[in-house]
């Protein structure tokens, strides 16, 4: 965890400045611990950043400064987002450890039920080994649970709930399963060829976790909002493709490139009369 926080601070530094001095890098490395870090410690971290994550810090002798080169081993945004969550959890843990009264000042949404954490371990092990599993899952609209054999691919968070994204062995379709609705996980030891990148691409083209009809095309959806909704849309984007088309005193218009689905419709309808879909081969009721 300590090294991840150090990496986060270094990447944040290079996000702000293309070229950085040795002193600036050392300060960034020790930022979370509020102490001076030795060059030897930084050198070990630098090697790990390159080997494990594909972020190479290169020294430019002519300028006596360093710059960052990405080899795309991992997704920059996803890594930074993950570490940000870890940072927040670590801070809250320290608050509670320092003063137990802080428990009364924290209120979390309900997450995984007690005992379901073990499913995370079983599924992540199956993901890394590329082994199929049988999960016992009860959908939100189902009265009883059923078994389904899947190839687990990755975990996805949406609206503070975690989902398993997997390939159904039976029909080879990608599906999402709420982690809080998985009752049991059984490994069957059968290897599969991972379609992780294909699944991530498919889910990156939608809002939420419902892929919907295969015939739905990837399209530009233009939405007009009342200008006072701008702060909310900037802090919680509808989709990672969101771009601003118009930003005036009276109009705030954005464009997202997605395959429209029910969850997109839900998100837009939350704004009520403050939002209007202007373009897109799709009707938001």
Automatic annotation (TrEMBL):
Domain WYL: 119-185
Pfam families assigned to the protein according to its UniProt record, in alphabetical order: WYL
Domain of life: Bacteria
Signal peptide: none
InterPro entries assigned to the protein according to its UniProt record, in alphabetical order: CBASS_pafABC_assoc_protein, WYL_dom
Protein name: WYL domain-containing protein
């Amino acid at each position: 965890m300590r090294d991840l926080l150090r990496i986060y601070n270094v990447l944040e530094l290079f996000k702000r400045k293309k070229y950085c001095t040795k002193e600036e890098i050392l300060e960034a490395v020790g930022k979370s611990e509020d102490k001076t870090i030795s060059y030897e410690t930084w050198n070990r971290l630098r090697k790990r950043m390159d080997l494990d994550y594909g972020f190479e810090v290169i020294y430019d002798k002519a300028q006596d400064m360093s710059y960052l080169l990405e080899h795309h081993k991992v997704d920059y945004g996803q890594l930074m987002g993950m570490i940000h969550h870890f940072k927040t959890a670590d801070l809250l843990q320290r608050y509670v450890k320092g003063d137990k009264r802080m428990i009364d000042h924290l209120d979390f949404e309900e997450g995984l039920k007690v005992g379901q954490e073990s499913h995370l371990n079983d599924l992540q092990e199956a993901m890394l080994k590329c082994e199929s599993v049988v999960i016992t899952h009860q959908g939100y609209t189902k009265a009883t649970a059923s078994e389904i054999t899947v190839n687990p691919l990755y975990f996805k968070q949406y609206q503070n709930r975690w989902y398993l994204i997997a390939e159904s062995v039976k029909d080879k379709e990608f599906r999402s399963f709420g982690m809080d609705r998985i009752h049991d996980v059984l490994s069957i030891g059968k290897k599969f060829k991972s379609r992780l990148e294909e699944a991530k691409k498919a889910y990156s083209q939608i809002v939420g976790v419902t892929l919907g009809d295969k015939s739905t095309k990837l399209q530009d959806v233009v939405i007009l909002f009342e200008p006072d909704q701008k702060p909310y849309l900037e802090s919680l984007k509808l989709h990672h493709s969101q771009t601003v088309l118009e930003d005036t005193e009276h109009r705030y218009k954005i464009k997202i490139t997605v395959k429209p689905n029910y969850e997109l419709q839900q998100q837009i309808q939350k704004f009520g009369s403050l939002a209007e879909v202007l373009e897109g081969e799709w009707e938001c009721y």
